[in-house]
């Protein structure tokens, strides 16, 4: 029991509301003098924990003041407390309706929306994006503007945060307020239409050295990819200056897989006899968990098959690595643990004078024109395959699992075809090779028929 409203003897101070715990729920004890000698007890609708006890204590103090001012019913309505109480001598309206409950705060609306979306979002998206990144954005905006005004929040986010993430957050806020309206928690959506007014510019025409992107919406945007020649420059520099990262980065450039997928790649995913590798899981460094990999449509788990021609670059890269147990990841940190994407970014981007990273020195030397995050090795592979090697977009989509170019209905047919293609050869060159092979097969067939005919004539 909380005794802040009690006298030193332990009895409730006359005329004051006190709170207590019963069966792990917080309740309030009301003073007798306002209820004809009876002492009502009401549930406050809160579990007994430290945060709620503090909130309940403040509520008790508010109730005490409202009782003294004769507006106790308004207090009950404000906090959503249902209680059939009548103040002694109080006047009850003809319809006996309580005043409408005041609207929720921005964070209360967001928390309610997150709880609603919790079961239809991936755990990583829910925990990292909705409960960490976006909550941090909102709290920073509220603190900076000293307000919950939608326009002020929007403008502060546009000025101080990523436009891409801001647009998405404002859109989600609009959905959150619509949900609150539907549940009759609020009457007005201040974020309606605000997201459509935010124009997210692409990288085309940008003059800054750094282009920020970590999504698959723009994998065919050449400005968000390094050229294949630049990729070789990056790998050459890495092999010389940061050899520990060479195999990992080369794997990313050769396969176009996401960073989490490369981190989660295990030896059981290497099928030497079939000359294939499997991409079937990803790793969240922040949550320290493995998850099924993303797919083209995002609503179904699929194992992506990637060709690994014998004695090709990918084959030789994996052959040169020290093989471990089947359930071990192929690429590890210097301390022989699972790689952290934070550590990767530090090695890639650098963070201090003694660690300039991989990319900044190449920009300083004029060998690269811009900074792109490690994620964009994926963009580099995809644009190289489509624009340099002339690969069919659907084939590349089957390899990388990006976009909706490949419907789930036809995914397997295209994936089967994709496994027969060598990603290290230009499409026209491989087509010529396949044509030559078919011609040779036809010649062998004709020769075999001739041999069979000669054998029959001898008999």
Low-confidence stretches: 1-11, 86-102, 202-214, 404-414
Strand order of the largest sheet: 1-2-3
Q: Identify the CATH class of the largest domain.
A: Mainly Alpha
CATH superfamily of the largest domain: Intergrase catalytic core
The biggest beta sheet is recorded as: 3 strands, antiparallel
Element order, helices and strands? EEEHHHHHHHHHEEEEEHHHHHHH
What is the straight-line distance between the termini? 109 Å
Helix content: 40-55%
Given helix and strand content, the structural type is mainly alpha
The Cα radius of gyration reads 32 Å
How many distinct beta strands? 8
Integer average pLDDT: 78
CATH topology of the largest domain: hpI Integrase, Chain A
Overall shape: elongated
Number of separate helices: 16
Strand content: 5-15%
* CATH architecture label name of the largest domain: Orthogonal Bundle
Integer count of domains: 3
What characteristics describe this protein?
mainly alpha, 459 residues, three-stranded antiparallel sheet, 3 domains, hpI Integrase, Chain A, 16 helices
Structure notes:
The protein folds into 3 domains: 1-102, no CATH class; 106-197, DNA polymerase, domain 1 (Orthogonal Bundle); 222-425, Intergrase catalytic core (hpI Integrase, Chain A). Helices cover 44% and strands 8% of the residues. The chain contains 16 helices and 8 strands. Helix 3 packs across helix 6, helix 4 (123-145) packs across helix 5 and helix 8 (246-255) runs antiparallel to helix 10. The longest helix has 32 residues, at 427-458. The chain is elongated and about 125 Å long. The model is unreliable at 1-11, 86-102, 202-214 and 404-414 (pLDDT under 50).
């Amino acid at each position: 029991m909380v005794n802040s409203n009690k006298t030193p003897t332990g009895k409730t101070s006359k005329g004051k509301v006190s709170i207590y715990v019963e069966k792990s729920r917080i309740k309030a004890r009301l003073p007798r003098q306002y209820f004809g000698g009876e002492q009502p007890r009401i549930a406050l609708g809160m579990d007994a924990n430290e945060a709620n006890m503090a909130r309940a204590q403040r509520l008790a103090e508010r109730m005490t003041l409202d009782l003294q001012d004769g507006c106790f019913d308004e207090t009950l309505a404000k906090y959503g407390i249902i209680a059939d109480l009548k103040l002694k001598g109080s006047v009850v309206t003809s319809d006996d309706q309580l005043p409408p409950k005041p609207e929720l705060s921005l964070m209360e609306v967001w928390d309610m929306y997150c709880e609603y979306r919790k079961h239809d979002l991936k755990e990583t998206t829910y925990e990292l994006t909705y409960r960490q990144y976006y909550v941090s954005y909102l709290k920073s905006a509220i603190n900076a503007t000293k307000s919950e005004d939608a326009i002020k929040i929007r403008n502060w986010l546009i000025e101080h945060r990523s436009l891409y993430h801001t647009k998405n957050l404002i859109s989600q806020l609009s959905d959150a307020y619509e949900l609150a309206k539907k549940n009759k928690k609020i009457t007005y959506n201040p974020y309606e239409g605000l997201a459509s007014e935010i124009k997210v510019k692409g990288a085309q025409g940008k003059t800054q050295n750094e282009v920020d992107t970590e999504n698959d919406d723009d994998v065919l945007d050449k400005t968000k990819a390094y050229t294949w020649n630049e990729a070789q420059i990056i790998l050459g520099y890495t092999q010389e200056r940061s050899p520990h990262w060479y195999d990992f980065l080369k794997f990313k450039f050769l396969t176009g897989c996401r960073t989490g997928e490369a981190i989660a790649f295990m030896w059981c995913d290497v099928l030497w006899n079939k000359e294939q590798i499997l991409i079937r899981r990803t790793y969240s460094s922040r949550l320290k968990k493995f998850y099924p990999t993303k797919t083209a449509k995002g609503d179904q788990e699929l194992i992506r098959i990637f060709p690994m021609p014998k004695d090709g670059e990918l084959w030789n890269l994996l052959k040169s690595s020290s093989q471990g147990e089947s359930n071990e990841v192929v690429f590890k940190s210097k301390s022989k643990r699972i790689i952290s994407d934070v550590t990767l970014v530090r090695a890639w981007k650098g963070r201090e004078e003694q660690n300039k990273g991989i990319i900044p020195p190449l920009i300083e030397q004029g060998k690269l024109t811009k900074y792109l995050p490690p994620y964009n090795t994926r963009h580099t592979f995809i644009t190289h395959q489509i624009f340099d090697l002339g690969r069919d977009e659907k084939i590349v989509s089957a390899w990388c699992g990006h976009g909706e170019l490949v419907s789930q209905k036809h995914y397997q047919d295209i994936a089967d075809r994709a496994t027969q293609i060598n990603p290290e050869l230009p499409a026209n060159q491989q087509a010529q090779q396949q044509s030559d092979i078919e011609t040779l097969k036809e010649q062998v067939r004709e020769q075999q028929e001739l041999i069979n005919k000669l054998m029959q004539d001898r008999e």
